[in-house]
Design a protein that fits this description.
single chain, Urease, subunit C, domain 1, TIM Barrel, eight-stranded mixed beta sheet, globular
Length: about 425
Amino acid sequence: MKRFALLLAALAAQPASAETVAIVHARAWTMTADAPVENATIIARDGRIVSVVAGGAAPAGAKVIDAAGRPVTPGLFKAATQIGLTEVTAARETNDQAVATGPLGAAFDVEYSVNPNSTLVAQARADGVVEAMVYPGGSAGAPFSGRGALLHLVEGEDILDRPQAALFVAVGTATSGKVGGSRAAQWSLLRNALDEARLGAALDPRERLLNRLDRASITPVIERRVPLVISADRESDIRQAIGLAKEYNIRIVILGGAEAWRVAPLLAARRIPVIVDPMLNLPLNFDQLGSRLDNAALLAKAGVTVAFTVPGFGIHLSYNAGSALREGAGIAVANGLPYADGLRAITLGGAQIWGDEDHHGSIAAGKLADLVIWDGDPLEPASGPAIVLLGGKPVSLVTRQTELRDRYRPGRDDALPPAYR
């Protein structure tokens, strides 16, 4: 992948003490409009965007990066992932995304197992991902999966942005066996849990099914402080989720939503966002019989806030987080989603869903200067980041993958054992 060493060298040559950065000659996709700002000058000061102006001049003393007409977007927002929770899927000691036994259901909280030193976190950052919601894969208290956390993928240890940012539930074929074999039991248990959290001390202790920790974890949902994320694909389950949001006056997010297109107008009317897999076109189970590649296009056309996750049979929840996300957005655009909406789904969409739009998702005054300068079309898999900036400062694009590539690249004699040189 081309990295535009000239750009990096020019940036490095500027005085290290400067606090103002100017990206000039940019094709700036601000996400505040459906078309880019051509020949844009983006000014950032003290880590935040100050202005975006077509043909503007760089302030005196600013670090100047010449984008040379290349696309600049907000950093990618991975709306549902498990980076930092899993390193090697088959190595149990590196896999902390779920629990199968024990007392924890809703109270299972992944914030305590996030690994900022994961090579997959570094890879996601180098691929342009700056913010991510990491969510649990399952708990011992189905249908609850547990609590997710927002990560800000800065370099260093302090990547936990907002712990306990959402509560996750999984309903449908994949988890019905954990509650006896029927999704009816899943919905009954979920309703009971919401009732227990809502009644609190007024509920007779002898009638309680949940432990103290699980009830406390559901209370923020009842109080509308965090959303309840319902992983569901079948239309009937999505309709149940819509009804639940109205009955309990809670915030709902749909994760998966293979058949969400069937109820797109209703989701839009109730302002329920959907985090959809744009690559899903063949059903993996009976819940996904209605899956189709224009799902995202139909949802966006109806006015639903859309973001993307690309599970890739679970592989891309941790691996290739940025490249898979961009490829999925490209597939959605190829199947009817407007190009600008495709970019929004991997930037602003996640920020809106997780209440982070004051900091991420668009290039506008006051937002964090978490930006990506691309070496080509961001939705083209063969393209990649030329420069990734977090808080207006470039981060390293060196990862374990690039080091292995450079070590064993064809034509490098010292990469081969002596007998093969």
